[in-house]
Amino acid sequence: MPDITLENLSELLFVNPLPSITGWNRLEARPRAEQFDRSLKAEIRDPLWMLTRQWQFGEFKGEDAGSPVWARIKTRTTRINRFQAVDGEVKGLNYYEENSTTKTFSPPLEAIVEREKPALDLPLRLQMGRYWLKMLQGTVGLTRNYAKDYLLDFPFALPARDEANGPTYAHQDVWQLNAAITGRSMDGGALFERIMAGNDPWESFTPAVADQIPLRKLGKKFTDWFVKQYNLPGEGEDAWAPSYLEYQFKVAAPENPTGTSQTVLVADQYHQGRLDWYNFDVDKDTAKLNAVSSPVEDAVQKTEVKNFIPSMLEFPGMPNPRWWEFEDRRTHFGDINASTTDLSSLMLIEFGLIYANDWFVLPYDLDAGTLATVEGLAITDNFGLRFWIPASGSGSESNWERWAMFQMNHRKEIKPSDTRLFLAPAAGKIMESPPLEQVNFIRDEMANMVWGVESRIPLQDGTSRPGGEASNELRKYLETVMPDAPAPVLEDTGAKISYQLQTQVPEHWIPFIPVRVPGSDRQIQLQRAGMLRVIEGKLGNPRVEPRSELLRVGLESNQPYFVHEEEVPRAGAMVNRTWQRARWYNGKVHTWLGRRKTTGRGEGYAGLRFDQAKDR
Hints:
Number of domains: 4
């Protein structure tokens, strides 16, 4: 800024007609005392007003009720140690401590129930072959390297282009993968099947005598790795009931040291993919699960007495029972708009506003697979009175009147509920793959039947494809390889209409027709049927067969497949077959192939019509 003189004053005033001088000062806090004790006390200037407000809100109204301040509980626990799938063999389980005599710790119960043998597709066979060659390379003591011998002994063969191998060659992606690994990689699946059949781990070549025993041991190690890697079930461990589209199994827990007395729990309607107490009922018809094909450790019942300080049951944002307390406002009770049929919201509001100070929590830790009985619960309140608390639902009321939260019912009997608590050894978190197979069971009232629609079909390259897309590719391929039929000789009769016996249906729609249950004139069940593959101008019309494992039940052995009619309601049912992965104790990972049933998408119409008259 230039200096101000008498000569340039008028010029500067013209440039800045409103000159000003700006000044500022910093604001600083100046405490009146060095201590903040009084400020943190939040003192009340008018305590009499506070007392009158307490009187106005009924805070001084006395109640003949005390708050629990001390609890003493006595429990008796045991753990499940037997498993039986449907009517299979009884297998041993171990959910005891790590230092028990049984060394192997059982997987999550979902993995034991759901696991099934996966189809050895191309990627899985390729992985098994690479793992075997890696094991060969790391084996010390062999006289020579047998890698080339195994590549020639268990090769991948490119399928021939004919009708028999149509489903493999029909999909270009599968053919390209097969062509890429043929002559370059080893088929580990063929080696696995040979060893599991009781044969030596070689076929066309003979290893040196000194190498035969090491190779047999290596073959045993190879099969153990695959069974452990994919949780393959043993004989009699398949819990899937195809007629019910559900899993059915039993578990048992000993009630004495020798296991002569057991509690048998049955789960005959499990399909949710997550096991919990509500899946089990006490089976009084089965006294015990006796025959065991694997080691079992019978546990002695453990009795414990513990003391607790009860704490009030609350949830985030719950209104505080004392009116002057501050709330965190995470739950806006004033914004809850509950109708007369919204029972869950009404119960939440009633609990939070009326019965909040009537519920208390006594935390009690249980191990996985434990069946616990509360033998006694004594409560001491703030007046020094002691009360004996019986188990809820232990009265003689009927089943339909009983409040049975976390309690199991007696199967096929109307009795007081079983007051024991069963903590199923279920995985905390399960990762699930996209559906490898998906079948949608829908009702078709126009055709008076049920259709099993293969929404997802697995391919040999390890992937899955929409059922309509996969079936169209297969049909187009068959049109190119099936022999041509001779041209029909049609006489001109002068008819104005033609007669069509039956319309075509998409090939991924598998029919289930209603048939009578043997010995009954009224009960109906659904039997898998088949549609003819009619390709105009081609010879040979084979029956369309399902391509998913979910619908190929009994097909290889030429056995019929029945589904109970009540399992397919009007809304339908959808069954998925997916890979599951969960982390268990000590960070151990378990992988298995399982199934899950959910509600369908309603009714459908396949367009199937009979006896149609058409204009020529």
